[in-house]
Amino acid sequence: MSQRIKRAFLDTEDGQILYRIGGEGEPILLLHMTPRSSDEFKELMPILADKNLVIAMDLMGLGDSDKPKRVYSVADYAKTAIALLDELGIQKASIFGSLTGAYIAGEVAAAYPNRVDKLILCNVIGFDEQEQDIIIKRYSQGYHIKEDGSHLLEQWLSRVNYIGNGELNHRCVLDDLKCFGSPIYPGLAAGNYFLLAEERFRLIKCPTLILSGEKALEPLEKYGLAKADNQSWTQEVIPHSQRVELEGGTLWMVNQMAAEIFKVVDDFLAKN
Fold this sequence. Notes:
Structural class: alpha/beta
Mean pLDDT: 88
Radius of gyration: 17 Å
Strand content: 15-25%
CATH class: Alpha Beta
CATH architecture: 3-Layer(aba) Sandwich
Number of helices: 12
Number of domains: 1
CATH superfamily: Alpha/Beta hydrolase fold, catalytic domain
Shape: globular
Distance between the termini: 26 Å
Largest sheet: 8 strands, mixed
Helix content: 25-40%
Number of strands: 8
Strand order of the largest sheet: 1-2-4-3-5-6-7-8
């Protein structure tokens, strides 16, 4: 039977953070990709909550969390994750991060090793310096409203070849629209965290699962944002990690393949 997931807010000095919570047992914190929200875990949370206390937060500036007055760094996002665990009285939790959220999850494990039990890095894509410059420029510009409303169709079409015309694309567009009129807060752009990630991730000592989708790179390769040659770095800097690739998995596989992801994550949490 699926567990009920509730919503609540955490007050911080920079505004409120929305989070979802449900279940009982060992805690696991879920960190979403940019520019999505905790809605990325809508399908996965009720399954995880059958065995775990599961928490998913909207990163500051995204989803239904407030927009901070300054651009957050990855270190700032890591602090908010710890602040949420403190608010909930959780001393140690496992953390699952998807793409952008995986970089933040890795920083939490590096900066607060005594607070992280196990770590799951999902689709933590690597980028070279040229690709990083393109991504940073896009994030700093953010999305802009157009008077003729054409921005709505542009966002709908941006993923349609990979997600389709259904509900999931609609949910992704809703998350996009909540970012309009202000910079997107990925954390990665601030301080060029892409360049620091290898050094920071070498500090990770907890059991780590590197989970990737077979087709996750396709949309990024198409637009010159990532290459297959740059995707082995996590295993090199976290040599004690284990890797699982899901056949047919995409960047949006947390929504599309929740049952398959649960099985991999549940096995990992049980064996380590």
